[in-house]
Amino acid sequence: MLRKLGVLLTIIGAICTGVLIYDWWTDKPISTTLLFGVLVLLLGMALSRRPREPLEGGSAGSLTPPSKKNRKEHKSWVSRQ
Known about the structure:
This protein is mainly α. It is about 60% helix and about 0% strand. The chain is built from 3 helices and no strands. It has helices at about 1-25, 30-50, 65-70. The longest helix has 24 residues, at about 1-25. The chain is elongated, with a radius of gyration of 25 Å.
């Protein structure tokens, strides 16, 4: 649902950005509504973006129990020989 709303807001924001660039190019006064449209574009892009997939082995949930224990174990910076 949010992704569909994000796509709609992205399209509306892209149209506002196009009109804003056209008005700037032809030296017409720029409306504050068009600047708001650029913010709508950014919001739409954020809503329609897919979340990143977690990296392999980067999260604690994908580690095996022995490797979790090794990761939590204290590692001293003083070497013992």
